Amino acid sequence: MDAFYASVEQRDFPQYRGKPLVVGGTPEGRGVVATASYEARSFGVRSAMPSKKAQQLCPYAIFVYPRFDVYKQVSRQIREIFSRYTDLIEPLSLDEAYLDVTEDKLNIGSAITIAEEIKKAIKEELNLTASAGVSINKFVAKIASDMNKPDGLTFIGPSKIEKFMEKLPVEKFHGVGKVTAERMKMQGIRKGSDLKKLSEERLMVLFGKSGKFFYNIVRGIDNRAVKPDRETKSISSEDTFSYDLDKGSELYEHVLRITQSAFKRLNQYRLYGRTLTVKVKFADFKQITRSISFDHPISNENEAYLSAKTLIENADFEGKLVRLIGVGFSNFHEPKMRNRVEEQKELF
């Protein structure tokens, strides 16, 4: 979907149309940008950017609070449109999914035609636009979907994949973040053609297990199947406060609220986790995470809150004020007997 949250807001509220709109954060500089309209993006505003920077780049931007319940409902409507064509749908987020249309339900026989029909249905039924990438595997299709936004459709056929990948800057490779891209550039790897010159062994020396992945994808090789049932690894909720808080009663009121929000999501997914993790981000943007694991599922909100509260009480804040708290649950399917406090850095 194109600027999904912002597009839904502009669809539902005419006063936002044609104006730079930021979903998430505040004009006072609290929080981060969830997404921005294309009018705001023209000023350099991007997702995950601190709202303070977004406000500096675009002083006239309108900031609105996310309406996730609405976005989830729209996402379900989009998935219903997808399901008319295939049952092999792998959601990546509320606004993105892989579809395998090798055998489409309507016997259309053309992935490009299917993409065109899906885009048309989304526009006519939901008054939103989507961009599609069509190719022979997930990696190339993902890259193609980002090429001609908004409202784009890009097809990269089998005979053109290797030439396309050779010309692609490494930072455009899906899964290559800023840190890895910089590491690649330090090795003289700036485009796919540079990456392609290195052996699989050399890439694994430089980038570990990811080296094998890079060796394959620069050649357009990606054998991952579209998996309709992606296992949920973790569920969490977090909030950035309107002003920084110390370790006092007001902070724990927010911890209770955030825990209840995360627990509500657990119930929606009919899951119970054995591990609870809290994330604390301080006013200087440094953050810590702490977790505790049990030999039984955490089955009620009170137990979850008391566990989160204990983790925060025992954490050393070093006198810093807090700008964000997150609470998450994981370890849904592992029956391991653990009951210890530990750091867990990749839950959120």
Automatic annotation (TrEMBL):
Cell compartment(s), UniProt: Cytoplasm
Molecular function GO labels: DNA-directed DNA polymerase activity
Catalytically driven reaction(s): DNA(n) + a 2'-deoxyribonucleoside 5'-triphosphate = DNA(n+1) + diphosphate
Active-site residue numbers: 96
Subunit structure: Monomer.
Entry's EC annotation: 2.7.7.7
Protein name: DNA polymerase IV
Cofactors demanded by this protein: Mg(2+)
Function description: Poorly processive, error-prone DNA polymerase involved in untargeted mutagenesis. Copies undamaged DNA at stalled replication forks, which arise in vivo from mismatched or misaligned primer ends. These misaligned primers can be extended by PolIV. Exhibits no 3'-5' exonuclease (proofreading) activity. May be involved in translesional synthesis, in conjunction with the beta clamp from PolIII.
Entry similarity comment: Belongs to the DNA polymerase type-Y family.
